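2024-03-11 09:14:02 INFO receiving multi-entity request
2024-03-11 09:14:02 INFO entity count = two
2024-03-11 09:14:03 INFO echoing inputs for audit
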Amino acid sequence: MLKPDLLIVGAGPAGMSAAVVAARAGLSVMVVDEQPTPGGQIWRGIEANAGTARGRALGAPYLSGLATVRAFRESGAVYWPSTRVWQIEPTLRTYVTGPDGTLMIQPSAILIATGAQERPAPFRGWTLPGVMTVGAAQILLKAPGTVPAAPVWIAGCGPLALLYAHQLVRLGGAVAGFLDTRMPAPLAGAARLAAGAVLRSGRELAKGAYWYADLHRRAGRYVRGVVDLQALGTDRVEGVRYRTADGRVEEVETSLLLIHEGVVPELHTARSLGCQTRWHAGQAAYVPVLNEWGESSVPGILVAGDAAGIGGAEAAIQRGRLAALRILSRLGRLPAGQEGAEAACRKALARALAPRAFLDRIFMPRENVFLPDDDTIVCRCEELRVRDLRGALSCSVGANQLKAFTRAGMGPCQGRQCAYTVASLIANVEARPMGDVEPFRVRPPLKPVRLCDVASLAEEAAPP
Amino acid sequence: MFRLLEQGRSGEDAVTIDLDGQPVRARAGETVASVLMREAEAWCRATPVSQARRAPYCMMGVCFDCLMLVEGEGLLRACQTYVRDGMKIRRQIGARHVVPSC
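2024-03-11 09:21:47 INFO inference complete, emitting structure
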């Protein structure tokens, strides 16, 4: 069995940065990642796109990832691409399946750097072919370089929606219309946050303002204050019906609708290990409970990057480095002369997080993202609607009983798409805060695994 | 639904996969889901519950809506499955039957 000092799950900004610090200090480091190349979602395909017109159109923050990827490639960390982690036991024994088959790994510490996923935003018709997330469309833009065949409708809010629209137009695509679901921010509080953010991160905010202005100019239609959405069609999307805050209802024809309502940390892995999580009201998301080093409530398990709470790529780099420094120190392997490293990381982290409270405030998701109407499918896998769940919730049941009663969260995605909506329905029915709702228990395996892959472990486990 | 930005030079499109018996050209290094999104029939399965059609939704492995049958492998997320020349892909209609797959 492989026994590295450190196993890192995820080769995005946090995982790669942690690997570089730990491997350079002499730890044996293994990094496993589902993608065939390093970069995570934000720098996906960076090695292939760098130096091309597409790379330039994706922008400087994207291209900046190349330096981290190169440092990671040269760090000496063992890198297993195209590999999925499907089980981590409390002893930290980890099971992975990749091109070399299925293996057990027994590391001394694990860093979860699995990033974020887009916030599940159920609305009527969101399961129809032709509805996909903005993040999905951006992945198709990065590799193999595809854009919507016709001018596209985008609905939602958040920096990623603005960035994608900007990148799409630069590469020759077109936005037919943008349905902006952003709520008007309460000005007093936002202004105070804005002032602080502008002082410390003026350039980033100017960039965001430019994307916004650019989108206003280039989108065929720009509709503000959209509070309700419905994708129309039977076998595929044929149109979108939307309602604005002032009660206007309109329909437009389209065969593709991209939706985005922000991003939330990937918590499945941490929760499967029993790591404590809490509700972060400012980000309208669950986050793991961590100390200032990224250590979770479970000894030996650390979390860094957006999986630790949404902060973006630069924050992820710094959190990854801090986690690696902590692991080095815990293992008694911190090299001399690293005293300044922590301070530098903390300073850069504070700078990276400076605009976050302001961004969280202005892109706070609308309330019905969490409480869609009765007809809306909540659990995509088991096709359960709000009304099906409300029926079961008429007597007090938690998320796990609800799962047993209705099968919500029991399908292939294991609740990754319905856990938020289920929690908010329970909170709503029982008039409890989101933080008090017990989450779905995460059952193994974390990712689908074939019986023959499990069976192949017998050879490794057998005594010689 | 989607189109390629740059048509590759000859050789770059060398991969051909079999989608429900039809040959479909693909780029080496792309995923099955990304090929599917350029097809006129851009859907990947009909659900076991209501036979409703589904298509790739998240493209990053967290929605599990793009499950498709890959010959020799079983039911896989098409967005996490990279094309190989001659790979046979089937849309998954309804519930899956238990058959030996490996």
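2024-03-11 09:21:48 INFO post-check: The first helix of chain A runs from residue 13 to 24.
2024-03-11 09:21:48 INFO post-check: The mean pLDDT of chain A is 94.
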